[in-house]
Amino acid sequence: MEKHVATHHGGHLEALLNGCPDAILAINAEGIIVFANKEACALTERSMNELIGESIVEVYESSEAARDTNRKIYKAGGTIHDLETKTKTKSGKLIPVRVSASHLYDSNGKYIGGVGYFAQYRPWSGAEAQTKARLEHIEAELERLKSLASPIFELYPGLSVMVVVGELDSNRLKEISSVLLRYMEKTKAQVALVDLSNAAAINNDDVAKQLAKTVRTVRLLGAECIIAVMPANLAQAMEPMLAELGSLKTFNCINMALEEALKIIGYEIRKK
User: Which residue segments constitute the domains of the chain, with CATH numbers given?
Assistant: First the structure.
């Protein structure tokens, strides 16, 4: 079969593409390579004439790998980034690459081909992969603890205080509640004072439900939960739940909340 080799006229665009450190291949609607830069030739160990006019399948590990890449582009809406696969050289050597590619369409929305960037990389070894996974786990855990931003401490024997800072959604409150409940169980505290003066609730209804659940669970542990400085929008969302919560103790300043908490554990604040 005679190959139809594209004629290149040079110019700034070709110079730019040939200067790219990644291999670039463009195909037509039939999957035939119509453009390749110098890096693509080096990566696949083929000359320009050997690439232009060939099926894109020839530079993949297998026809199935080529089809799988195409399916993933369609599934992703026409563009993929850093898909790990392998390209095959003229001598049959397989080289790990990360592919970023897009389908191309004309002004009428008709598919006319695609363009892909093939970046060579060295895969992680087994030991490196384990270390990388461990580091990612530690980073995720540190980020989780950082995002909680909710220190809890024993102010007096029997009285624990949790200070919640920052935006508060139901997922974050669930995490905070778990920390609080574990702490209450461990210390056998009689009172949990939750300071919301520096918190901003979002998704009010979901946050209200989670907060109500936290209050009920603290009570099931045999302790009392006092809320200090509840945001107005959260208070509105919790109002329909008051019947099931009973005598929920909330205060609009931390001093009054602390005074009530101290009374429960047998202390009294007296003015001089």
Answer: 12-120 (3.30.450.20), 147-264 (3.30.750.24)
What is the β-pairing status of strands 79-88 and 94-105? antiparallel
The crossing angle, in degrees rounded to 10, of helices 126-148 and 170-187 is 80
Per-residue pLDDT tens for 163-199? 888 888 888 889 889 989 999 999 999 999 999 998 8
d(CA 239, CA 208): 9
What is the chain's alpha carbon radius of gyration, rounded to the nearest angstrom? 31
pTM of the full structure: 0.47
pLDDT in tens, 86-142: 999 999 999 999 999 999 988 888 899 999 999 988 766 677 677 777 778 777 766
Cβ neighbours of 137 (radius 10 Å): 10
